[in-house]
Amino acid sequence: MTRSEDSKTLSRQRYGMYARGYVTSSTHARGVDLERLIEIVQPRADQVALDVATGGGHTALALSPHVERVIATDLTPEMLGAARDFLAEQGATNVDFQPADAEDLPFDDANFDLVTCRIAAHHFPAADRFVTEAARVLRSGGLLWLQDHVLPEDDATARYVDGFEKLRDPSHNRAFSEAEWLDMLSRAGLSAEHSEQLTKRHFFIPWTERQGCSPEVVRELVRRLEQASAAAREWMQPRRLGTDEASFVNHHILIACRKS
Ligand SMILES: C[S@@+](CC[C@H](N)C(=O)[O-])C[C@H]1O[C@@H](n2cnc3c(N)ncnc32)[C@H](O)[C@@H]1O
After folding, report:
1. What pLDDT, on the 0 to 100 scale, is given for residue 25?
2. Strand (E) positions, the chain?
């Protein structure tokens, strides 16, 4: 098995085990980021959207009232099943579900008006391949909406932040800085029309529980937060460490880019 296949198998196993937790996760289900998606992208009733790595289906659900159809895809069959049940409970009737690897999308060229991918690209072993695939399946003039963890531009702090995320979830492959994303998108022929960053505060206990972290991993994560450099603390803004209310932030980038 290649490293890339290993990494995808790990993602499938972990998200298979923790699927339901991603449907109920408040940081995935709610947030200003989903509102920003609608405000910036302005989806239209005649559009067909592809949601890549749909997870619990929250992005597909946010899009569904605004577009003609959403095709929600994911690598993990259990995750797709959980998303299908959740969207049926929510009364969304214009969403179809299909298994798909983000790096090898099973769709024709120029098939979609809009492609979205929210909080998932850090799992992909070759994020650049996903970006090329997204560009391929977009119609000319179509939009890719990408949201993911973003790293600081400073290398040492970036390595610390990415290592922290990977310790909690070994299927986290790597996140990128804004400069790295913009370069990758432009190499795929996509021009960024909008880029912004926001922070999401995570309460440590549900955040580690959602990925089934062992007590040893939790202890090591706490140790790393307590001993973080000043730059890493400034980035992660830890609060109330050592209490049940311990929390920190991660940073997300939201980019809308168009295929010319
Ligand atoms: C955090 S969840 C996504 C959250 C979701 N997009 C939302 O808006 O709430 C990450 C998802 O990425 C999926 N995933 C990981 N690697 C993938 C790949 N190569 N192709 C497609 N999906 C993948 C996992 O199965 C999981 O469902």
Report:
1. 87
2. 48-52, 69-74, 95-99, 112-118, 138-151, 176-177, 190-203, 247-259
Q: The tokens of 109 are what?
A: 């060229």
Pocket-testing residue among 123, 148, 200, ligand 1, by greatest number of atoms within 8 A of Cβ: 123
CATH of the domain at 41: 3.40.50.150
Cβ within 8 Å of residue 220, ≥6 positions away: 167
Ligand 1 centroid–CA 122 distance in Å is: 9
Residue 165 placed within a domain: no
**CB of 105 within 8 A of CB of 52?**
yes
Q: Is the pTM of this model over 0.85?
A: yes
In a domain, 216, yes or no: no
Which residues of the chain are modeled with pLDDT < 50?
none
Counting atoms of ligand 1 from 1, which one is nearest the CA of 11?
Answer: 15
Closest to 49 measured CA to CA, from 64, 38, 37? 64
What range does the domain containing 53 cover?
3-152+171-201+252-259
For ligand 1, which residues put their CB under 6 angstroms from it?
8, 11, 15, 22, 28, 53-56, 58-59, 74-76, 79, 101-103, 118-120, 123-124
Residue 220 lies in a domain: no
Domain count, the chain: 1
CA of 54 to the centre of ligand 1 (A): 6
Residue 26: the pLDDT is 84
Cβ neighbours for 24, distance < 8 A, ≥ 6 positions apart: 56
Q: What is the pLDDT at residue 180?
A: 98
Distance CA 260, CA 191 (A): 8
Residue 35 lies in a domain: yes
- Rounded to the nearest angstrom, the distance between the alpha carbon of 38 and the centre of ligand 1 is 20
Quote the pLDDT of residue 3.
81
